[in-house]
Specification:
The complex is a heterodimer. By secondary structure, chain A is α+β, with helices and mostly antiparallel strands. Helices cover about 45% and strands about 20% of the residues of chain A. Chain A has a three-stranded antiparallel β-sheet. Chain B is α/β, with parallel strands linked by helices. Chain B has a seven-stranded mixed β-sheet with strand order 2-8-7-6-5-3-4, sandwiched between helices. In chain B, strands 9-10-13-12 form a four-stranded antiparallel β-sheet. The two termini of chain B are about 45 Å apart. The chains are: A alpha+beta, B alpha/beta. Chains A and B meet through α1, β2, β3 and α2 of A and α1, α9 and α12 of B.
């Protein structure tokens, strides 16, 4: 069902938690679909210095959250906005077909956080 | 693209190479999903996969050698639910039995009426059969349950109308273990002269099931829930009940169900029924004590846990609980890594986008429905296994909660 990489990120998720006084926060999903992802950002000179996440959801939801934080750190905001849900899934060596739509929202959460940063940080 | 390694391969390898060279012991707590084949059932069936290969419908020596075995199994099944052997029809699984009971009745009694009564918490085999009949013009009343998953008998009585031809109400719920008052349902059905079908797949062999005292007309059993192989079940059809067959074919099962008999599995199923009947009382107390130990342990060591299902009127081995702020599949995966097999009502494990329809029918909050976790125990479980689960569960729940945006310490 899940790849080795998904299980690795699920069992040892990277960057779990919250950032105090974050520069941007993004949340996607809702309880009725079973997945809620919240991403916290620290941005300096247009570069993502730190990302943390909190996720309520299945194995795929937790693993994609963990993976997107790894992919985003060190990227410019423009580069981070180009990250897609599909790219996150690919970095995990793929997700089961049923999970591609319901639990693969981590890049959306990242984009929401960047949007929040841009809106509030002017 | 390199082939992805499967989760079960990983868990298999964990068995041998988990960190620190420790092996993870496999602990099975999903008996409502299926049960291991009983060794006695395996011994009983093997000859019918080898030398006793005949078709029981044949007149010659090879057929004669096995037809007696099928009839003996029929008697063993009949004894478990207190009916006569002639009232038992062997089928391939519980789903076929439910389809046969519901569609076979609807077609046979169409001239008499077009109304069926069932509940919102039935197994999908019953719900989907009723929905298929709705497409053909039948009307179906789906009775609600209360927060404990319990049925309202008054609502049942009020739902009966002149055109009601069938009441289909399960004996014990597969997800919560809630046991319906089947004798009372049977009494009402008899009073209004409505045929009564019950899916007893989870109840039979675990609690007393008697079609006479409960006035049941149609009852479904499944072999693999009580230690027989997958692929065999039975439908009890009360003598004199007119039915239309689902599988038209040869003259097997007194023309009620065509298809060559699954002899080996039927033999094992018969023996499993006999053993379940003989051990019923002892297993009931043993399994219930284990379940109660687990329930008490979870409720006392973890905060914000909700019991799903009726607190008392419940199958002895079933415990369904929701842990606030965490999702069921992520909990199951963590348990699996520790060797424990359980199941969840989360959408992620149901293969749909919706969480369990049973949780929804009970009015369970949607986040708690996604978190619902079922431990279903059997006679092979031990106190040591329960205690091991109670030891590893609180830290897993805490870790997932700390990861959850819904959780505020």
């Amino acid at each position: 069902m899940y790849t080795e990489k998904v299980m690795d990120h699920f069992s040892n998720p990277r960057n779990v938690g919250e950032i105090e006084n974050p520069d941007g926060v993004g949340e996607v999903g809702n309880a009725s679909c079973g997945d809620i992802m919240k991403i916290f950002l620290k941005v300096e000179n247009n570069i993502i210095q730190d990302v943390k996440f909190k996720t309520f959801g299945c194995g795929a939801a937790i693993a994609t959250s963990s993976m997107v934080t790894e992919l985003a750190i060190g990227k410019t905001l423009e580069e981070a906005l180009e990250l897609t849900n599909a790219a996150v899934a690919e970095a995990l060596d793929g997700l089961p077909p049923a999970k591609m739509h319901c639990s693969n929202l981590a890049a959306d959460a990242l984009h929401e956080a960047i949007k929040n940063y841009k809106e509030s940080g002017q | 693209m390199k082939p992805a390694r499967l989760l079960n391969e990983i868990s298999l390898s964990l068995k041998y190479m988990s960190p620190g060279g420790m092996t993870v012991k496999h602990i099975y707590m999903d008996y409502n999903a299926t049960t291991p084949l009983r060794p006695e059932a395996l011994d009983a069936l093997l000859p019918y996969l080898k030398e006793d290969f005949g078709n029981p419908s044949s007149v010659h020596w090879a057929g004669r050698a096995v037809s007696g075995a099928v009839e003996k199994a029929r008697e063993q099944v009949a004894r478990l639910i207190n009916c006569s052997a002639a009232e038992i029809v062997f089928v391939s699984c519980g789903t076929e039995g439910d389809n046969f009971a519901i569609k076979g009745t609807a077609e046979a009694l169409r001239a008499k009426g077009d109304h069926i009564i069932t509940t919102t918490v039935e197994h999908p085999a019953v719900l989907a059969s009723c929905q298929a009949l709705e497409k053909q013009g039948f009307r179906v009343t789906y009775l609600d349950v209360d927060a404990d998953g319990m049925l309202d008998l008054q609502a049942l009585e009020q739902a009966i109308e002149e055109k009601t031809i069938l009441i289909s109400i399960m004996w014990g719920n597969n997800e919560t273990g809630t046991v319906f008052p089947i004798e009372e349902v049977g009494h009402i059905a008899r009073k209004y002269k409505v045929r009564f079908h019950t899916d007893a797949v989870q109840a039979a062999g675990k609690i007393p099931v008697d079609v006479q005292s409960a006035n049941v007309d149609l009852l479904v059993l499944s072999g693999h829930k009580i230690g027989a192989p997958k692929g065999v079940g039975a439908l009890y059809i009360r003598k004199g009940s007119r039915m239309v067959s689902l599988l038209h074919g040869g003259h097997q099962e007194r023309n009620r169900r065509g298809g060559t008999h699954n002899v080996a599995s039927i033999v094992a199923f018969g023996l499993a029924c006999e053993l379940a009947g003989a051990e019923l009382e002892a297993n009931y107390h043993r399994v219930k004590a284990l379940r109660d130990r687990l329930e008490r342990g979870i409720l006392s060591s973890i905060t914000e846990v909700k019991l799903n299902g009726h607190p008392e009127k419940r199958l002895p081995g079933t415990l369904n609980v929701s842990f606030s702020y965490i999702e069921g599949e992520s909990l199951l995966l963590n348990l699996d890594m520790k060797g424990i097999a359980a199941s969840s009502g989360s959408a992620c494990t149901s293969g749909s986008l919706e969480p369990s329809h049973v949780m929804g029918a009970m009015g369970v909050d949607v986040a708690l429905a996604h978190s619902s976790t079922r431990f279903s125990l059997g006679p092979d479980n031990t106190e040591e296994e329960i205690d091991y689960l109670l030891e590893i569960l609180p830290p897993i729940v805490q870790r997932l909660r700390e990861m959850s945006p819904l959780y505020n310490k």
